[in-house]
Design goal:
14 helices; Chitinase A, domain 3; 4-stranded antiparallel β-sheet; alpha+beta; disordered C terminus
Length: 386
């Protein structure tokens, strides 16, 4: 075996196996979790931590505030990666196909960047994202699949009865008394900080695509949560009510005279990115009628119910999954009571029998194809899981 092949063969072995084989071998990669047929490596977690740092810095955090927020979010990096794998696997099970969307989005990005040459476009993608084009498309595919699964399996099943909306209105009428005119807004910000001209063009294309999706009926709150670079993403983009004097001139000009449901098209170009705004509600001075605020209340009740349902769904996927996590790593959303202890191949021993057992014919015959491979799950019904 050549030295390069020997090196590749050792890349994903457990450290204990490597140490036993040769104490001088340096571990280049480490598997930290197994999720059904997929693995999570240490380098993925390292990349995840770097992405968190970049995201928080883009949102304006610095110094101790940045370090503290990064440390808090870093605890959930393994959880988030497990979530993603489970959703992608579910998407395959549901036969969700997003390839046409990917082809269109990539073509639109290439057109917006003004790069006709395929090789130059690949170089552009690598410069902007640090990824090969195929890796970038795969990231896009994973993101679209996870969003589709969540929308189909969770979002579509969260219903708010009109009676509950009415009850909220009656219990909070003072909240809907308007001392002066206000506009209630939600936002999606696609940042352009640190981007060159081509990167800015790609950001604009993404913002325009999100506008189109919102106008076709996709929930604005979910689009904001999944795509916005603003801190308001955690609240589904909701930035509450504003008096006209509270708004920047270009924002006030864009939304103040518009009706409820209006979405800025095209997105507003600001110094830090492209801003998409939706008018959630318009308030004239005085007491609002129920019909005027019904949709606003519906959205307000939807998001707090939607977020826990996502976690419940992911917990159920964990319960049904083959999941092993290496000692020293923590899934902060572990399913209660589920054993995810790591099975170290170095500790496995071959099955043996005694002469007496053979003589008594107590040993059961086992076909080679039924023997479990360490780190895999045998489905007793005969069907396989991806």
């Amino acid at each position: 075996m050549s030295s390069s092949k020997r090196k590749a063969a050792f890349l994903f072995l457990a450290p204990a196996v490597l140490a036993a084989a040769d104490p001088n071998i340096v571990v280049l990669e480490e598997i930290v979790a197994k999720v059904n047929g997929d693995i999570i490596t240490r380098s993925e977690l390292v990349k995840g931590r770097a992405a968190v740092q970049e995201d928080l810095a883009r949102r304006g955090l610095k110094g101790r505030e940045l370090a503290s927020a990064a440390e808090e979010r870093a605890r959930d990096i393994l959880r988030d990666r497990i979530d993603q794998l489970l959703l992608i696997q579910k998407g395959k099970e549901l036969n969700i196909n997003v390839d046409p969307e990917i082809t269109k989005q990539v073509a639109d990005i290439q057109k917006a960047a003004g790069i006709a040459d395929p090789e130059k476009f690949q170089a552009f993608v690598r410069e902007q994202t640090g990824m090969l084009l195929e890796d970038y498309k795969n990231e896009m595919r994973n993101s679209l699949i996870t969003q589709r699964v969540i929308r189909q399996e969770v979002g579509s099943k969260v219903n708010i009865p009109r009676a509950e909306v009415r009850e909220y209105y009656e219990a909070n009428k003072k909240e809907f008394f308007r001392p002066e005119d206000r506009v209630f807004l939600s936002e999606i910000l696609i940042s352009t900080q640190g981007k060159d001209a081509a990167g800015i063009a790609a950001a604009e294309k993404k913002a325009r695509d999100l506008v189109a999706r919102a106008k076709k009926g996709e929930r604005f709150a979910e689009l904001a949560r999944d795509n916005s670079d603003s801190p308001s993403a955690e609240n589904g983009g909701d930035i509450g009510g504003r008096k006209k004097d509270d708004l920047r001139t270009e924002v006030a000009d864009a939304v103040w005279e518009q009706s409820r449901g209006f979405i800025t098209d095209p997105p507003l170009k600001l110094e830090n990115g492209f801003l998409i705004l939706r008018v959630d509600d318009k308030q004239k001075a005085g007491q609002a009628e129920f019909e005027e605020v019904e949709n606003l209340i519906m959205e307000r009740l939807y998001m707090p119910r939607f977020q826990p349902k996502i976690r419940e769904y992911l917990t159920a996927l964990r319960q049904d999954a083959f999941l092993e996590i290496k000692e020293g790593y923590l899934d902060t959303a572990a399913a209660p009571g589920k054993n995810t202890a790591w099975s170290d191949p170095a500790q496995l021993r071959p099955e043996t029998v005694t002469k007496e057992e053979v003589a008594l014919k107590t040993r059961r015959k086992r076909l080679l194809w039924t023997l479990p491979i360490p780190g895999t799950k045998i489905n007793r019904t005969g069907s396989s899981r991806s």
